[in-house]
């Protein structure tokens, strides 16, 4: 498989270099632009698989860059900016951005977000379909759908990835640290209660649906998808 190509757009050379080093270590091919005008040029020349785009840029800003690129391409765009207000996030998504990461950020999380967006944006063959099925439950990671008792339930991507990972390995017990590493895909610097919060939200969607499976806590260890 060819390397994914990532265009990094930010006027801060240190940020660009840091992200570039992490991406190339993870076998991505990269190109860097320090201005909006150069970003538009490189989108045509470099033909990236994904663009990491800062908003505050000299010349034309990230909003305008996003508008210009969307006129000619559906390449995935992740907005990267110091602005974290709800209005900015909504505007970015309305302009066609696929994700939004406010600064300051953890570089490993940025890499994990890039991988997640690339997974969602690249169609897979029938042989690569990621679907697990149980009684009254379908977890479709190809289309990012959770179907519970024949109803599609709105589920954030990370919750869906978590339940898919557990359900793909029934009756296997995972520690919180294992789940952070294998589902989040980076070394999480917060605490492991992140997993607990996601499990709680999943239980609100799944509890009592079937007596043939259960999202179970293994006290003192972690969690498992128990199939009876």
Question: What are the SSEs and their pairings?
Answer:
Elements lengths: L4 E5 L3 H13 L3 E5 L2 H11 L3 E5 L7 H9 L6 E5 L4 H9 L4 E4 L4 H15 L9 E4 L2 E4 L4 E4 L2 E3 L3 H11 L6 E2 H9 L8 H14 L6 E6 L3 E6 L1
Parallel strand pairs: 1-2, 1-3, 3-4, 4-5
Antiparallel strand pairs: 6-7, 7-8, 8-9, 10-12, 11-12
Helix pairs in contact: 1-5, 2-3, 6-7, 6-8
Describe this structure in words.
This protein has 228 residues and is α/β, with parallel strands linked by helices. Helix 2 (36-46) packs parallel to helix 3 and helix 6 (157-167) packs across helix 7 (176-184). It has helices at residues 13-25, 36-46, 62-70, 86-94, 107-121, 157-167, 176-184, 193-206; strands spanning 5-9, 29-33, 50-54, 77-81, 99-102, 131-134, 137-140, 145-148, 151-153, 174-175, 213-218, 222-227. 40% of the residues lie in helices and 23% in strands. The protein has a 5-stranded parallel β-sheet with strand order 2-1-3-4-5, sandwiched between helices. It is built from 8 helices and 12 strands. The mean pLDDT is 86.
Keywords for this structure?
alpha/beta, 8 helices, 228 residues, 5-stranded parallel β-sheet
Shape: elongated
Helix content: 25-40%
Please state the structural category: alpha/beta
Number of strands: 12
Give, in spatial order, the strands making up the sheet with the most strands: 2-1-3-4-5
Rounded to an integer, what's the Rg over CA atoms?
19 Å
Q: Counting H and I runs of at least 4 residues, what is the number of helices?
A: 8
SSE order in H/E notation? EHEHEHEHEHEEEEHEHHEE
Give start-end ranges of low-pLDDT stretches: none
The overall pLDDT average reads 86
Describe the sheet with the most strands: 5 strands, parallel
Q: State the distance separating the first and last CA atoms.
A: 39 Å
Instruction: Give the percentage of residues in beta strands.
Output: 15-25%
